């Protein structure tokens, strides 16, 4: 359906088929299968529904084909440029990300070293004060703590095209798949279904038979 006020030919075509579909749906809801006769009636309606659905889908595809072709042509025209832009973006993202990661590691190491120095200075002062107090001497001068490193995480590069900062993305690497909980393993139900459709069985599963009508 269109979003504007103009009515398109396909709006009327869709509305016509919606009326037909609603009528068939009401028949489907009203039908109660209690014997072979009502079962045959239900299957007759099912055949009509299947036929009309197929025709509606074919008409829908036919009507949208020209517009879809235009969209595909536009996508094709921009595909090379878009792919190259994305490649360039990925290359630069990896390079700047690797540089920032190394910068962050250095920052963390500097912070850890500063914390050790602060603790060691505090312990040395406490010891010196205790020794001075025991000897009746004046307390030693306080030791200046080392300066904190410039935080890499707060750095933002401003450019004419926009500001570029670094966002932290928490990911993972598998180091021992045997320890990964079972809830994180994906069950390949499609592959299991293929085995059962071909007449086989899979340990941990049981055969589950259902019947579905096939309209020809």
Overview of this protein structure:
It is a single chain. With 216 residues, the chain is an all-alpha fold. The protein has one domain (9-168). Helix content is 61%, strand content 3%. It contains 3 helices and 2 strands. The protein has helices at residues 9-30, 36-135, 189-197, and strands at 157-159, 162-164. It has a two-stranded antiparallel sheet with strand order 1-2. Helix 1 packs across helix 2. The protein is elongated.
Secondary structure elements and their pairing?
Elements lengths: L8 H22 L5 H100 L21 E3 L2 E3 L24 H9 L19
Antiparallel strand pairs: 1-2
Helix pairs in contact: 1-2
Tags for this model:
single chain, 216 residues, two-stranded antiparallel sheet, 3 helices, 2 strands
Count of individual domains: 1
Termini separation comes to 31 Å
Q: Looking across the biggest beta sheet, what order are the strands in?
A: 1-2
The parts where pLDDT drops under 50 for at least 5 residues are: none
* pLDDT averaged over residues: 88
Helix-strand string = HHEEH
Helix content bin: 55-70%
Helical region count? 3
